[in-house]
């Protein structure tokens, strides 16, 4: 039943359009504010995870990062909430399921999500006040953006965003993104880096920031959004009272200039930093990028998404296949595919890890394949497979990595801010129906290839070349620039810098009265937990089935214990997972298998998982083969997955080599972006069997294993690797050891095969991983270097797991340290993008970490001070309550019904029952300040040297740190 009517006026807003979308089970409402022209989209859906967002078009006029720094600074105090850090304070005072802020190329957004009604309006009040009435103090601008400080008598640049962008632009993938936009849009605002270029950020002034806010942060330039089961009228009433009644219409020029289309394509060369020890002979990236249609044209967006899937999605996709079979690169370049995040879309394709002299050949291959496709045509099977995949993507309800309501916002916000119809981006059934009709026209897609790629001269060949001296040159330039500035400063100006630094330090160290901020309390935390029960009708000893509302999508998994592999074989498990669904079976070669997976499913994934079983008091590990499909393809999908497991074939060593190199390339890509995760994994590797496995399978150790394998991949080595992988498969997929997990609607479950197919009947030799994995009792003190301008610093130590009485105390302690002590010391004072502490209750491991950090030793010393901080600090009841709220927010995080079912299955697999979960939650709710001090005294150390340490940074910073540490230095080696 539709709740809203077109033309209706509500609290000063007029409803422009209303549409019920049956496929997504939601009511779409678009409104316009009568007085200011502000825009609003509301999605009414039976979902308790309500979302709110306010966004603005923010058009950068240079690469100073003004929009990005403003995004940070508006969250550091406002008219009704004049405290230093209301955003991070509200994280502590809320049961939010998501809180963040984003800076895009031409927009800035402030979204949050929560299941609690009171919390929703608390957060809405703080967010609106921050966006429309921020204090924008100069000290906060200097903290979040950029400032000068004297350190050891020398000037240094400091600032959270400054360090964030130094870290971000250490990645070749991020540099390529900037290369694409600056090359294809030389005359528009997209040529600028909206996040900020560290070389340009220092030119930004506080006055510039305030002018930018006054220009763009106005209702006439605002796009509001809400989603969920809370009523729209209540949102509009609050919005009117807090904001809209205070504003009148303002004419704001926030249009992005359209780029004049070129008559001739271009070539552009950019550099990215690599370590001086890197062999650069095959470290170039080559990419062809085209400017395609405006993203406001929903039908053309769908066409380009379809072309992306057909051309590049899987090993059998024609463009990907020829590029990868050429052997000219290790993998597709990260930016390959269709990008609809700007006013005009971009389509790119290329390779990474290529030789300089092969770049022209790569471009030739790309155009040759595209030209051939316009002549030979695209098969109906390939088109139908890709259409099906688009349908699965559209219909699937998933709450990760963002809440589902926010994912819907991402679908329409870009065309919406550029004047498009927001409904068009969600009205999939209408557009797909129109597209299917057009696809019946002769050569419809082939003509699109001709239009967008072969005759489109607005394209560029983009080359990234490795530069061993780039990082050193940039650091030298920065030092020289600062020395030049310092030489020109008067005594009075130097004194002012010192005074500003002292003022900022005093601000950061002043304990504030946060009573002006709204808050939830313990009474608002639900005492119950969500319980998910398997459907006995469709379950047996080996098959566990869950009934769930899945929007016509079925989820299937086969789970096998990893309990029969040697230490050498264990190291190859991630590679085995990567190549298993790629290489083919005894019935199908790798191309036929790829086509079958594409035709029947939304993807087949193979992955590993490990955790401790507290019931059996031992570590467990599993390999999981998982697939999702439409209900119409259930039986065929199950048969295909069972064929992959029972009839795998690793004998195609030519393609095995290709997929191994592709796997290595993927590992390399994640190192800089996931530096904090990798540092923590490395630091924890000797603290438990599970931690050792996680490091072996997902840490730098895995990269080192694969790097060693790929150094010599001749025919003999490949044959040996093929035999090892085959042996692993035979050991793992034994019939009597596996379990099947089915998740879907009841009609779908009735179609499933509740049995295993043609698997090995033989029992494999059982080997206990707890005995195979040998832990080194020596504490880690390691530093790994690569080309990065920032550091990731981790310290880990063993505590107790969830079944211990201190577990709840440690959970709350980790939140107190993260949000109060480490946030203040590492981010506000130190300028790191992030600082945190985490308690892994499954393994009983406590950790400290920093992200995009300008320091190493200072950060380690902060970790040393954590114990003293807790023991000396007078915690208020409210501060303890805030930390408890954070723990419970994570415990009760909402998920789709399919995700909840999956979670219930894996909890049971690792011996976690609902009573354990409820008992733990009750214990968390009872934690006191006294408990925190006892836990800190018992588990935290006085000196970071007593923790296990891992640091990822550049070589110069690590060497500099070791000079200061002397005999207590880190063991340094290259990544």
UniProtKB/TrEMBL annotation:
Q: Check the record and name the InterPro entries matching this protein.
A: Metalloenz_LuxS/M16, Pept_M16_N, Peptidase_M16_C, Peptidase_M16C_assoc, PreP_C
Which Pfam families does this UniProt record tie to the protein?
M16C_assoc, Peptidase_M16, Peptidase_M16_C, PreP_C
Organism domain of life: Bacteria
Q: Does the keyword Zinc apply?
A: yes
Q: Which residues form the Peptidase M16C associated domain?
A: 464-709
Q: Which cofactor does it need?
A: Zn(2+)
Keywords from the named record:
Hydrolase, Metal-binding, Metalloprotease, Protease, Zinc
Gene Ontology process terms (BP): proteolysis
Molecular function GO terms recorded: metal ion binding; metallopeptidase activity
User: What protein name does the entry list?
Assistant: Peptidase M16C associated domain-containing protein
| Annotated source species | Candidatus Falkowbacteria bacterium GW2011_GWE1_38_31
């Amino acid at each position: 039943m539709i709740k809203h009517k077109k033309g209706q006026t509500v609290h000063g807003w007029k409803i422009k359009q209303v549409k019920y979308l049956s496929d997504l089970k939601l009511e779409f409402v678009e409104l316009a504010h009568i007085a200011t022209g502000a825009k609003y989209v509301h999605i009414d859906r039976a979902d308790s995870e309500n979302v709110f967002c306010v966004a603005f078009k923010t058009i950068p006029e240079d690469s100073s990062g003004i929009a990005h720094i403003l995004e940070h600074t508006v969250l550091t105090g406002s008219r009704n909430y004049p405290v230093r850090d209301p955003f991070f304070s509200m994280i502590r005072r809320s049961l939010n399921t998501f809180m963040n802020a984003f800076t895009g190329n031409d927009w800035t957004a402030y979204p949050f999500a929560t299941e609690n009604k009171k919390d929703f309006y608390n957060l809405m009040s703080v967010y609106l006040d921050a966006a429309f009435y921020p204090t924008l103090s100069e000290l906060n601008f200097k903290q979040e953006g950029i400032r000068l400080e004297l350190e050891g008598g020398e000037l240094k640049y400091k600032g959270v965003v400054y360090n964030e962008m130094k870290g971000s632009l250490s990645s070749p993938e991020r540099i390529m993104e900037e290369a694409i936009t600056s090359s294809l849009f030389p005359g528009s605002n997209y040529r600028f880096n909206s996040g900020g270029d560290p070389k340009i950020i220092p030119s930004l002034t506080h006055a510039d920031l305030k002018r930018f806010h006054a220009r763009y942060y106005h209702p006439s330039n605002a796009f509001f959004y809400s989603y969920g089961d809370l009523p729209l009228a209540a949102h509009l009433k609050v919005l009117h009272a807090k904001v809209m009644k205070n504003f009148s219409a303002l004419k704001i020029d926030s249009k992005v200039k359209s780029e004049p289309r070129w008559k001739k394509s271009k070539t552009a060369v950019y550099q990215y930093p690599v370590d001086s020890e890197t062999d650069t002979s095959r470290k170039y990236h080559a990419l062809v990028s085209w400017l395609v249609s405006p993203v406001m044209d929903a039908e053309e967006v769908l066409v380009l998404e379809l072309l992306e899937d057909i051309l590049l999605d899987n090993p059998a996709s024609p463009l990907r296949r020829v590029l990868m079979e050429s052997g000219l690169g290790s993998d597709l370049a990260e930016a390959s595919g269709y990008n609809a995040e700007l006013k005009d879309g971009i389509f790119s394709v290329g390779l990474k890890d290529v030789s300089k002299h092969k770049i022209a050949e790569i471009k030739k291959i790309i155009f040759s394949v595209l030209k051939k496709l316009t002549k030979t045509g695209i098969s109906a099977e390939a088109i139908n497979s890709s259409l099906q995949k688009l349908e699965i993507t559209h219909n699937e309800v998933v709450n990760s990595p963002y809440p589902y309501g926010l994912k819907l916002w991402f679908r329409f916000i870009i065309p919406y801010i550029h004047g498009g119809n927001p409904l068009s981006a969600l009205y999939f059934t209408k557009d797909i129906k129109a597209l299917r009709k057009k696809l019946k026209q002769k050569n419809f897609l082939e003509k699109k290839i001709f239009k967008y790629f072969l005759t489109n001269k607005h394209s560029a060949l983009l080359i990234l070349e490795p530069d061993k001296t780039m990082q050193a040159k940039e650091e030298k330039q920065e030092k020289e620039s600062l020395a030049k500035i310092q030489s020109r400063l008067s005594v009075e100006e130097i004194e002012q810098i010192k005074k500003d630094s002292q003022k900022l330090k005093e601000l950061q160290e002043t304990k504030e009265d946060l009573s002006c901020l709204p808050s939830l309390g313990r009474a608002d935390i639900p005492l119950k937990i969500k319980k998910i029960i398997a459907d006995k009708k469709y379950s047996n000893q080996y098959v566990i089935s869950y009934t769930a509302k899945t929007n016509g999508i079925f989820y299937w998994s086969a789970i096998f214990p990893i309990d029969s592999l040697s230490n050498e074989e264990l190291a190859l498990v991630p590679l085995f997972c990567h190549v298993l669904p790629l290489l083919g079976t005894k019935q199908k070669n790798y191309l036929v298998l790829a086509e079958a997976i594409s035709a029947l499913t939304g993807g087949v994934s193979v992955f590993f998982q490990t955790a401790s079983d507290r019931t059996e008091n031992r570590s467990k590990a599993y390999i999981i083969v998982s697939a999702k499909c439409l209900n119409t393809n259930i039986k065929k999908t199950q048969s295909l997955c069972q064929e992959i497991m029972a009839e795998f074939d690793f004998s195609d060593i030519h393609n095995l080599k290709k997929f191994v190199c592709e796997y290595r390339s993927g590992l390399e890509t994640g190192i800089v972006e996931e530096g904090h995760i990798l540092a923590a994994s490395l630091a924890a590797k000797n603290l438990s069997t599970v931690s050792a496995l996680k490091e072996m399978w997902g840490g730098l150790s895995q990269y080192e294993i694969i790097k060693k394998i790929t150094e010599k991949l001749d025919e003999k080595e490949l044959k040996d690797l093929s035999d090892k992988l085959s042996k692993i498969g035979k050991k793992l997929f034994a019939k009597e050891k596996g379990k099947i997990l089915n998740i879907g609607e009841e009609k779908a479950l009735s179609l499933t095969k509740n049995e295993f197919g043609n698997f090995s009947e033989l029992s494999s030799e059982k080997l206990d991983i707890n005995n195979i994995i040998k832990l080194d009792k020596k504490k880690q003190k390691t530093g790994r270097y690569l080309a990065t301008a920032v550091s990731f610093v981790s310290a880990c130590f063993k505590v107790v797991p969830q079944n211990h009485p201190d577990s709840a105390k440690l959970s709350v302690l980790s939140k107190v340290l993260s949000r109060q002590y480490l946030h203040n010391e590492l981010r506000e004072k130190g300028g790191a993008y992030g600082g945190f502490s985490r308690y892994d209750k499954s393994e009983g491991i406590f950790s400290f970490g920093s992200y995009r950090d300008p320091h190493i030793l200072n950060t380690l010393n902060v970790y040393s001070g954590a114990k003293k901080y807790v023991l000396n600090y007078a915690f208020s009841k409210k501060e303890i309550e805030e930390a408890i709220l954070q723990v419970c927010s994570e415990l009760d995080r909402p998920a789709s019904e399919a995700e909840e079912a999956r979670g219930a299955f894996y909890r049971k697999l690792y011996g976690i029952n609902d009573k354990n979960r409820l008992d733990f939650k009750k214990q968390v709710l009872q934690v006191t300040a006294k408990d925190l001090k006892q836990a800190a005294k018992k588990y935290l150390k006085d000196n970071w040297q007593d923790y296990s340490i891992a640091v990822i940074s550049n070589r110069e910073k690590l060497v500099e740190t070791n000079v200061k540490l002397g005999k207590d230095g880190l063991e340094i080696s290259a990544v």
